[in-house]
Design goal:
The longest helix is centred in the last third of the chain and has 20 residues, at 308-327. The chain is α/β, with parallel strands linked by helices and 348 residues long. The protein contains 16 helices and six strands. The relative contact order is 0.18. It is globular. The strands form two sheets. Strands 1, 4, 5 and 6 form a four-stranded mixed β-sheet that branches. A two-stranded parallel ribbon has the order 2-3.
């Protein structure tokens, strides 16, 4: 499960421990974290991080939500992406100065494929498994379509919560999960607060050049700097930076990575550690069977033995947690997540 920052480059609605507890209350046995920066990366590196953590935990079977429940949709996209034809089409799109997502969609359409968003992400999971040499199986589960009378999408619930209609949003959350979110001490991410922090950084502290910041190349960093000079708020900051080439998520990731100092090599490497977020009795047995390929941190002191790349990854994760703490409503002190413990379901 993603940590406190999501693939959209935003802070999560609820903190990672609350969401992990909700998952175990609703039937999961073990919840490990997909750490930052992979949790906020685009599809290729988001998938690489997730599959690498799973593989390190001894997992080789993956289930994902799909628009139509047809595994071949993702398989065909994954295979097409490895062809010379696809690469040639991407090169042509690059000459037309379009964004990466639009270039990918255009190339796939020329090949005769129009995958849904979930099938596209699943195809990157398949790519990641091949890249790290994992023999994996994949199962597609058809997602229930949204109904006009009862929105079921997570994006709908986030919009309700952030527009102040939290009570309505919570009416769609199953009771066991809601109990986890209603507990005392649960932290709630506040995207407007995050936007103000990112805006202020780019207005006052951003360097002249992006340097080696990941996802900030190709004119993205310059757009953010210019937008910060003209914007009057965090919301306007991203609005002014947006154009047809760069998605909102791409701009948010670039801003977030700039503030936290994430480089290309950080994202391209595989996670060498993960946090234990929640488990039940069966999950404890699974955890005990995880070998030494992946370090599972259960308490802050576990980080003291990390060295090299793992130590660098831990530092980025700690910075992200501290930023989330500042973005909460109300904010909490730095180091809040160093004091958190995994949720343990005693009856699982």
């Amino acid at each position: 499960m993603s940590g406190n920052f999501t693939q959209r480059g935003e802070c999560a609605v609820y903190d990672k421990y609350a969401r992990a507890e909700a998952a175990v209350r609703c039937g999961a046995d073990l919840v490990l974290e997909l750490p930052f920066p992979w949790s906020s990366a685009g599809a290729e590196f988001f998938a690489l991080g997730g599959v690498s953590v799973a593989a390190g935990a001894g997992i080789s079977a993956f289930i994902y939500g799909s628009e139509d429940g047809d595994i071949s949709a993702a398989e065909n996209v994954s295979m097409a992406r490895a062809t010379d034809e696809y690469q040639s089409l991407l090169d042509l799109a690059d000459g037309e100065n379009v964004g990466a997502a639009a270039a990918h969609a255009g190339a796939m359409k020329e090949i005769g494929l129009e995958p849904g968003r979930n099938d596209k992400l699943a195809s990157f999971y398949m790519d990641a498994a091949r890249k790290i040499g994992l023999s994996a199986s994949f199962t597609a589960v058809k997602r229930v379509a949204e109904d006009a009378e009862r929105p079921v999408g997570s994006s709908d619930l986030r919009k309700m919560m952030r527009s102040g209609d939290r009570e309505k949003a919570e009416s769609f959350i199953v009771p066991d999960a809601l109990r986890a979110y209603k507990k005392e001490g649960v932290l709630r991410g506040n995207v407007p607060k995050l936007d103000e922090i990112l805006f202020t950084y780019f207005r006052l502290f951003a360097p002249e050049r992006a340097g080696c910041v990941f996802d900030a190349g190709g004119g993205v960093f310059e757009r953010l700097r210019r937008a910060a000079k003209n914007a009057r708020s965090g919301e306007e900051f991203f609005s002014l930076a947006a154009n047809k080439k760069y998605t909102n998520a791409r701009l948010r990731r670039a801003a977030l990575y700039t503030v936290l100092g994430v480089t290309g090599s950080d994202v391209a490497s595989k996670p060498e550690f993960t946090y234990l977020l929640a488990l039940n009795g069966r999950g404890r047995s699974i955890l005990n069977g995880i070998g030494g390929a992946l370090r599972v941190l259960t308490k802050p002191s576990d980080s003291s033995s990390l060295t090299g790349t793992a130590a660098r990854q831990y530092e980025l994760s700690r910075r992200a947690d501290d930023l989330f703490a500042a973005c909460c409503d109300p904010s909490v002190p730095s180091g809040e997540f160093l004091r958190r413990s995994p949720y343990i379901e005693k009856n699982g």
